[in-house]
Specification:
Arc Repressor Mutant, subunit A, Four Helix Bundle (Hemerythrin (Met), subunit A), 9 helices, 2 domains, three-stranded antiparallel sheet, globular, 3 strands, mainly alpha
Length: 219
């Protein structure tokens, strides 16, 4: 089935926001978008309202639609939500992960360690997402999977638009990944796996908060 004009407009905007073409604070001008893509104003307005409801765009009176700028507060809220969603998805997926799945996850973790040794943080971030996607891949809950993916996408965007850094946290996460895989391989109770996955995400949040507060005290 062909996409409606509103779906086309939404896909264009979402892609350009996600790939950084339209960065935080970018003003989305309907007339200009219409000229560039040959789509009338109504579908653009519909897509902007949809993106506003999803939290990607802010419509400001007398200004127009702007790509949303996230701060560390938004990052904290997102990671708290992701921790709960991903913890549940990992717990549901764990009993169904195969030996091959777990072997792939351990290989991804080794690659993450290697990327840190080579100071390649971009590759580390990509591999980290692949690792977590794999652990959630067999949860068999389409809605939950969609929610997890949405929050991961939001996190990727926030990382490009807000301060989020805690020295040493990336290396610590690799050890936590190994612990999580040990629990899954050992057939640990799903509730314990869920708690471990949630704690892993929250540890990043705690590290960022502590580093942020220490940095302010040094000023």
């Amino acid at each position: 089935m062909a996409q409606s004009k509103a779906e086309q407009a939404y896909a264009i905007l979402k892609t350009k926001i996600m790939d950084g073409t339209f960065g935080p604070g970018h003003r989305l001008v309907i007339d200009q978008l219409g000229r560039e893509h040959g789509i009338s104003s109504v579908p653009w307005r519909e897509s902007l309202r949809r993106l506003e409801a999803e939290g990607w765009v802010e419509i400001v009176p007398n200004v127009g639609a702007l790509v949303k700028t996230f701060d560390t507060g938004a990052w904290r809220r997102s990671i708290r939500l992701l921790a709960r969603l991903e913890g549940l998805a990992t717990a549901l997926s764990a009993p169904k992960l195969t030996a091959a799945d777990l072997g792939s996850a351990r290989d991804l973790n080794r690659q993450m360690a290697n990327s840190l040794e080579n100071f390649d943080t971009i590759r580390f971030g990509r591999l980290n997402r692949e690792f977590h996607v794999l652990l959630c891949s067999r949860c068999d809950d389409e809605r939950l999977s969609h929610l997890v993916d949405t929050e991961w996408t939001r996190m990727d965007f926030i990382r490009r638009s807000a301060f989020w850094y805690a020295p040493g946290r990336a290396m610590a996460s690799i050890g936590e990944h190994d612990h999580l895989l040990d629990l899954i391989e050992g057939g640990t109770d799903p509730d314990e796996i869920e708690a471990a996955a949630r704690t892993h995400e929250i540890a990043t949040l705690d590290a960022v908060i502590a580093h942020d507060e220490a940095s302010r005290l040094e000023l």
